[in-house]
Amino acid sequence: MRRLGIIAAPGWFEPSGAEILERHAGEIAVTQTILGPPGFDWSFASIEQSESELLNAARLLVEAGSEVVAQVGPAFAWVIGGSVAGARSLSQRLSAECGVPVVLQGTAVLDALAGLSGRRLAVACPYYSADWKQRFDQFLRDSGYRIDAFQTFVEQGIFPDQAAVAARQYDFRPADVKDSIRRTRAAAPQADAVVIGGSGVRTLNWIAELERELGLPLIAADRCLYRAAVTLLGVTPAA
Fold first, then answer.
1. pLDDT level of residue 176 (50, 70, 90 thresholds)
2. 84 and 144 part of one domain
3. Do the Cβ atoms of 123 and 138 come closer than 8 Å?
4. Predicted structure pTM score
């Protein structure tokens, strides 16, 4: 049994452990901790200042026997790092400090993007607010990607406003998420891939089918982290 530790995002009941155990029963044991501090407000300023909390969480998981640590919440890598190189440097610092590989969800996404043959993207971050969309859009553009379309639930009319999105507490119907991705793809017919942002979007049960339907790579935050973490454990991903 290989041992995976998960740093769950603040204020969020993390499903990755259950998803991994469903796919790798008898291969991987999972434990997790929630990133502090209590009352985390999800402002960009709070994220920028959270490196020490990430390190403390990783160390706790290593003390429990984790061989690899997977961090949930892609924004931590790109907000703290500020650039692709900065995000990877953050992962390297955390890994060096705690003695095992620390996989940041944001860097897992960046690594998947680096494997593409082109740099034209459609971006579906369904539950993002306007300020989160602007911040991630700018990060991708500064990183050398062309954004052909970037759409959210509210912009697409799937939800009437951001308050209605927030009221779902990240519990979104797969049908709504897939509808959002299809619309984003249709708005960017020349894109080389669709980025599906946010750990609150869960795709593992249906992403391969939708990828075949749309005919291009789908770079989903949850699948990127899953694949990176289990591969580092020496286990073949099942999704």
1. very high
2. no
3. no
4. 0.96
